[in-house]
Amino acid sequence: MTTGSSRGTGNETNYVMQKFARGVLNTNNVDCCARVCHGPSVAGLQLALGNGAMSNSISDIENSKCLLVFGYNCADSHPIVARRVIKARENGAKNHRLRPAPYRNRAHRRSSSAAQ
């Protein structure tokens, strides 16, 4: 038996799913599409930066002066990161978002961005 999740599933939901799979179903067969769809980004980061993971710590985000975000809504996917982004904006950081889809969570938005 195995369990799997989609790209639209947030970290918290994935955490609950893997706890259910391991604790109730007694299986370690937990998979996610990120293993396949993020493969190219891991390879690209490895070649460009020498590491296939993020190049800064999450705690660095709130001390940033400028945030440039491509096609990502951290409020949906990574709420802890979203808190750090909000804190950075409260500290005066510029937040530029490049998204092909409308941004749904505008609670912390100050003004329209030229990048939007």
Automatic annotation (TrEMBL):
| Lineage: superkingdom | Bacteria
A Pfam family of the record is Molybdopterin
Q: Single GO cellular component annotation?
A: membrane
Composition skew (Basic residues), residue ranges: 94-116
Name the InterPro entries for this protein. Answer: Mopterin_OxRdtase, Prok_molybdopt-oxidoreductase
Any keyword Transcription regulation? no
Q: What class of enzyme is it?
A: oxidoreductase
Coiled coil segments of this chain: none
Task: Output the Gene Ontology terms for molecular function.
Answer: formate dehydrogenase (NAD+) activity; NADH dehydrogenase activity
GO BP term, example: respiratory electron transport chain
Q: Which residues form the signal peptide?
A: none
The Molybdopterin oxidoreductase domain, residue ranges: 3-92
Q: Which UniProt keywords apply?
A: Oxidoreductase
Instruction: Give the EC number(s) under which this enzyme is classified.
Output: 1.17.1.9
Region (Disordered) residue ranges read 90-116
Protein name per the record: Formate dehydrogenase H, selenopolypeptide subunit
Q: Which organism is it from?
A: Klebsiella grimontii
